[in-house]
Amino acid sequence: MTDPNHITRNELAALIGAKSATYVNELEKTGRAIRAPDGKNWLKAESLAAFYAGKDPSKQGVADRWAAQRSQDAPQAPDDADARSQRNDASIGSSYQQARAVKEKFLALEAKRAYEEAMGKLRDAREVEGLVATAMTELRLRLENMANTLAPVLAAEATEAAVRATLSDQFTHALESASHHFARLAADAKRP
User: How far apart are CA 69 and CA 154, in angstroms?
Assistant: First the structure.
Protein backbone atom coordinates (compact mmCIF):
# COMPACT_ATOMS: atom_id res chain seq x y z
CA MET A 1 0.00 0.00 0.00
CA THR A 2 1.44 3.33 -1.02
CA ASP A 3 1.19 6.48 1.00
CA PRO A 4 -0.95 9.14 -0.79
CA ASN A 5 1.39 11.84 0.54
CA HIS A 6 4.36 10.22 -1.29
CA ILE A 7 4.72 11.32 -4.90
CA THR A 8 7.36 10.93 -7.59
CA ARG A 9 9.69 13.64 -8.74
CA ASN A 10 7.75 14.01 -11.99
CA GLU A 11 4.46 14.34 -10.12
CA LEU A 12 5.90 17.02 -7.83
CA ALA A 13 7.33 18.89 -10.82
CA ALA A 14 3.90 18.81 -12.48
CA LEU A 15 2.20 20.08 -9.30
CA ILE A 16 4.47 23.12 -9.00
CA GLY A 17 4.42 23.78 -12.73
CA ALA A 18 8.12 23.10 -13.32
CA LYS A 19 9.27 22.62 -16.92
CA SER A 20 11.66 19.87 -15.89
CA ALA A 21 11.64 17.23 -13.17
CA THR A 22 15.29 18.03 -12.41
CA TYR A 23 14.12 21.36 -11.00
CA VAL A 24 12.82 19.37 -8.02
CA ASN A 25 16.43 18.39 -7.20
CA GLU A 26 17.36 22.08 -7.16
CA LEU A 27 14.45 22.77 -4.84
CA GLU A 28 15.64 20.01 -2.51
CA LYS A 29 19.06 21.68 -2.21
CA THR A 30 17.42 24.88 -1.00
CA GLY A 31 14.98 23.10 1.33
CA ARG A 32 11.93 23.80 -0.83
CA ALA A 33 11.25 20.12 -1.67
CA ILE A 34 11.20 17.41 1.00
CA ARG A 35 12.15 13.79 0.34
CA ALA A 36 10.10 10.98 1.78
CA PRO A 37 11.77 8.67 4.31
CA ASP A 38 12.15 6.00 1.63
CA GLY A 39 14.57 8.31 -0.22
CA LYS A 40 12.95 7.67 -3.59
CA ASN A 41 9.76 9.70 -3.42
CA TRP A 42 8.78 13.14 -2.19
CA LEU A 43 6.41 14.27 0.56
CA LYS A 44 3.60 16.03 -1.27
CA ALA A 45 2.13 18.31 1.43
CA GLU A 46 5.46 19.25 3.01
CA SER A 47 7.14 19.90 -0.34
CA LEU A 48 4.28 22.08 -1.59
CA ALA A 49 4.24 24.05 1.67
CA ALA A 50 8.01 24.58 1.54
CA PHE A 51 7.87 25.52 -2.14
CA TYR A 52 5.13 28.12 -1.71
CA ALA A 53 6.66 29.52 1.49
CA GLY A 54 9.88 30.31 -0.37
CA LYS A 55 8.17 31.66 -3.46
CA ASP A 56 8.75 35.32 -4.35
CA PRO A 57 5.34 36.88 -5.03
CA SER A 58 6.90 39.62 -7.13
CA LYS A 59 7.60 36.94 -9.75
CA GLN A 60 3.98 35.77 -9.78
CA GLY A 61 3.18 37.57 -13.05
CA VAL A 62 5.80 35.55 -14.93
CA ALA A 63 4.58 32.31 -13.37
CA ASP A 64 1.00 33.14 -14.32
CA ARG A 65 1.96 33.82 -17.93
CA TRP A 66 3.78 30.49 -18.18
CA ALA A 67 0.90 28.69 -16.53
CA ALA A 68 -1.56 30.30 -18.94
CA GLN A 69 0.57 29.30 -21.89
CA ARG A 70 0.78 25.70 -20.66
CA SER A 71 -2.93 25.57 -19.87
CA GLN A 72 -3.81 26.54 -23.44
CA ASP A 73 -2.51 23.15 -24.50
CA ALA A 74 -4.51 21.23 -21.87
CA PRO A 75 -7.16 23.31 -20.05
CA GLN A 76 -8.38 21.86 -16.76
CA ALA A 77 -10.84 22.99 -14.12
CA PRO A 78 -9.22 23.57 -10.72
CA ASP A 79 -10.12 21.05 -8.06
CA ASP A 80 -10.46 21.76 -4.33
CA ALA A 81 -6.78 21.14 -3.65
CA ASP A 82 -5.78 23.70 -6.30
CA ALA A 83 -8.18 26.28 -4.85
CA ARG A 84 -6.75 25.77 -1.35
CA SER A 85 -3.23 26.05 -2.74
CA GLN A 86 -4.09 29.34 -4.44
CA ARG A 87 -5.59 30.74 -1.21
CA ASN A 88 -2.43 29.75 0.67
CA ASP A 89 -0.35 31.38 -2.07
CA ALA A 90 -2.26 34.64 -1.65
CA SER A 91 -1.72 34.75 2.11
CA ILE A 92 1.97 33.95 1.73
CA GLY A 93 2.34 36.64 -0.92
CA SER A 94 0.54 39.13 1.27
CA SER A 95 2.81 38.54 4.27
CA TYR A 96 5.87 38.62 2.02
CA GLN A 97 4.75 41.92 0.51
CA GLN A 98 4.06 43.36 3.95
CA ALA A 99 7.51 42.36 5.19
CA ARG A 100 9.09 43.77 2.06
CA ALA A 101 7.15 47.03 2.45
CA VAL A 102 8.37 47.38 6.04
CA LYS A 103 11.95 46.72 4.93
CA GLU A 104 11.69 49.28 2.12
CA LYS A 105 10.19 51.86 4.50
CA PHE A 106 13.09 51.52 6.93
CA LEU A 107 15.64 51.67 4.10
CA ALA A 108 13.98 54.89 2.90
CA LEU A 109 14.04 56.35 6.42
CA GLU A 110 17.72 55.47 6.76
CA ALA A 111 18.47 57.16 3.42
CA LYS A 112 16.49 60.23 4.52
CA ARG A 113 18.43 60.37 7.81
CA ALA A 114 21.77 60.16 5.96
CA TYR A 115 20.68 62.88 3.53
CA GLU A 116 19.53 65.24 6.29
CA GLU A 117 22.72 64.61 8.21
CA ALA A 118 24.81 65.38 5.12
CA MET A 119 22.82 68.59 4.51
CA GLY A 120 23.39 69.72 8.09
CA LYS A 121 19.72 69.49 9.07
CA LEU A 122 20.26 66.62 11.47
CA ARG A 123 22.80 66.29 14.28
CA ASP A 124 23.95 63.47 16.47
CA ALA A 125 21.93 63.71 19.69
CA ARG A 126 24.96 62.93 21.88
CA GLU A 127 26.90 65.82 20.37
CA VAL A 128 24.02 68.25 20.94
CA GLU A 129 23.49 67.00 24.49
CA GLY A 130 27.19 67.52 25.22
CA LEU A 131 27.19 71.13 24.00
CA VAL A 132 23.96 71.96 25.82
CA ALA A 133 25.28 70.39 29.02
CA THR A 134 28.51 72.42 28.76
CA ALA A 135 26.60 75.66 28.18
CA MET A 136 24.21 75.07 31.07
CA THR A 137 26.98 73.99 33.45
CA GLU A 138 28.96 77.14 32.70
CA LEU A 139 25.85 79.31 33.15
CA ARG A 140 25.04 77.65 36.46
CA LEU A 141 28.61 78.12 37.77
CA ARG A 142 28.59 81.80 36.79
CA LEU A 143 25.23 82.37 38.51
CA GLU A 144 26.31 80.49 41.67
CA ASN A 145 29.55 82.48 41.91
CA MET A 146 27.82 85.81 41.34
CA ALA A 147 26.97 86.25 45.01
CA ASN A 148 30.61 85.87 46.04
CA THR A 149 32.02 88.12 43.32
CA LEU A 150 29.32 90.80 43.37
CA ALA A 151 28.79 91.23 47.12
CA PRO A 152 31.85 93.47 47.66
CA VAL A 153 31.19 95.44 44.44
CA LEU A 154 27.52 96.01 45.23
CA ALA A 155 28.29 97.01 48.81
CA ALA A 156 30.50 99.82 47.52
CA GLU A 157 27.83 101.18 45.13
CA ALA A 158 26.10 104.34 46.31
CA THR A 159 22.90 104.28 44.26
CA GLU A 160 20.27 101.74 43.31
CA ALA A 161 20.81 102.51 39.62
CA ALA A 162 24.50 101.62 39.90
CA VAL A 163 23.58 98.31 41.60
CA ARG A 164 21.09 97.56 38.81
CA ALA A 165 23.68 98.36 36.12
CA THR A 166 26.32 96.14 37.76
CA LEU A 167 23.85 93.24 38.12
CA SER A 168 22.67 93.71 34.55
CA ASP A 169 26.27 93.56 33.27
CA GLN A 170 27.01 90.37 35.20
CA PHE A 171 23.79 88.67 34.00
CA THR A 172 24.53 89.74 30.43
CA HIS A 173 28.05 88.21 30.59
CA ALA A 174 26.70 84.94 31.99
CA LEU A 175 23.97 84.69 29.34
CA GLU A 176 26.39 85.65 26.53
CA SER A 177 28.65 82.79 27.54
CA ALA A 178 25.75 80.30 27.24
CA SER A 179 24.65 81.97 24.00
CA HIS A 180 28.17 81.52 22.61
CA HIS A 181 27.90 77.73 23.07
CA PHE A 182 24.48 77.65 21.36
CA ALA A 183 25.76 79.84 18.51
CA ARG A 184 28.63 77.40 18.02
CA LEU A 185 26.14 74.54 17.85
CA ALA A 186 24.06 76.42 15.25
CA ALA A 187 27.14 77.31 13.19
CA ASP A 188 28.29 73.68 13.17
CA ALA A 189 24.82 72.66 11.99
CA LYS A 190 24.99 74.96 8.95
CA ARG A 191 28.30 73.51 7.78
CA PRO A 192 27.83 70.67 5.25
Answer: 98
Q: What is the pLDDT of residue 87?
A: 54
2: left (phi over 0), alpha (psi -120 to 50) or beta: beta
Q: Are 33 and 42 in contact (CB under 8 A)?
A: yes
Count Cβ atoms below 10 Å from residue 24 Cβ, excluding itself: 23
Rounded Cα distance, 186 and 192, in Å: 12
* Rounded distance between C-alpha atoms, residue 29 and residue 143, angstroms: 73
Alpha helices in the chain (DSSP H): 9-16, 22-29, 44-53, 60-73, 80-118, 125-156, 160-190
Backbone angles phi, psi at 4, to 5 degrees: -65, -15
48, 41 Cβ separation under 8 angstroms: no
Distance CA 115, CA 105 (A): 15
42-56, 59-73, 77-91, 150-164: which has the minimum mean pLDDT?
A: 77-91
Task: Give the residue among 129, 45, 54, 114 at the shortest CA–CA distance from 81.
Answer: 45
pLDDT tens-digit readout, 71-87: 776 545 555 555 555 55
